[in-house]
Design goal:
Elements lengths: L3 H21 L2 H5 L10 H7 L1 H25 L7 H27 L3 H27 L14 H20 L12 H16 L3
Length: about 200
């Protein structure tokens, strides 16, 4: 039996998992401080650990972005079914894995497997959100009454496709590596270009 309380508990659980995962990102940064404290000057320490701080910043932004997308989706939900629950649990698994993938990226650098683990985790997380978007579109009974259809399946598919492309390029071309994530700007650029062309058409 599906109840409002059951849905609230599910969403609260999902939010808690994201909060814990995003908090876990900072723990490896604490470990970079030497036991002897000020024996190592701070500028040198920050310079030596720059990859770790960079990975933390990027992963924090990614998790925050994924949560915002997920939050927008669940705002439209008024009921749930087994598929909805399973997809959300799979999504939380990717979020929980991201702190580990972040540390892998910081420790192993541009190693192809490290790139695959890091970007691959993000791609899988994005794919889960895309599947949730498609599920809500195909099963309107899961939407709450009066909820606007703010989700855009085409945009979700494009974003996941950009992640997959970044994964393939980052692994195939080691000199590019994590910089392949800049490909994520392509969907937004394509949408803006399409909007400008549509606006320029004579009516």
């Amino acid at each position: 039996m599906r109840t409002d309380r059951g849905l609230d508990r599910l969403i609260t659980f999902l939010d808690a998992v994201v909060a814990i995962a995003i908090t876990l990102l900072v723990l490896p940064l604490v470990d970079v401080l030497p036991d002897e404290g000020a024996a190592v000057d701070l500028p040198t320490l920050l310079a030596e650990e720059a990859p770790r701080f960079g990975a933390f910043t990027l992963s924090f932004a990614v998790i925050a972005r994924f949560w915002l997308v997920h939050h927008r989706l669940v705002e439209q939900v008024g009921s749930y079914d087994r598929t909805f629950v399973l997809l959300n649990l799979l999504w939380t698994m990717t979020i929980v894995l991201l702190p580990f993938a972040t540390e892998v990226a910081a420790v192993y650098g541009a190693d192809r497997l490290a790139v695959a683990v890091y970007i691959g985790t993000m791609a899988l997380s994005s794919a889960c959100l895309t599947l949730l978007t498609l599920l809500l579109r195909r099963r309107p009974q899961l939407r709450r009454a009066g909820a606007d259809e703010e989700d855009d399946p085409a945009r979700a598919v494009l974003t996941t496709s950009a992640f997959v492309l970044a994964l393939l390029v980052g692994v195939a071309v080691p000199t590019i590596g994590y910089a392949a994530l800049f490909l994520l700007f392509l969907p937004d650029a394509a949408r803006r270009l399409r909007a400008r062309r549509a606006a320029a058409r004579p009516r």
